[in-house]
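Narrative summary of target 7.
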Amino acid sequence: MRSTKSFGLVIAVIAIACGGSDDLCSRVGSALNGFITKATPCYPNPPTIPFTAAQCTASLARCTDVDKRIIGSLADCLNALPTCTVPTTAVWAAQVQACVAPANALSAACKGP
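Modeled conformation, tokenized:
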């Protein structure tokens, strides 16, 4: 199901994004919290996404400055999403996909094992 893939992609990128800059980690954490809140009207039981500042900092250490810009843009895009509504679920899911798509360009080191 496409909505499940959207959550999976966000989870994967957020897991990668965690590390390096406290400011970036704060932005990612905020984006993650906002994403879950915005998704809940359409997906009442979103998956739990573990996120800690320590994990974030450790993970971003592997990322280049370009990777960090991509991750920052992802956070900004997720923050800019509207709240999902049942009638707009498909459009909202496509917006999430558009936010996450640039993460395909992350370096192998940043993506991790």
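The helical segments are 2-17, 22-39, 53-60, 65-80, 89-100, 108-111.
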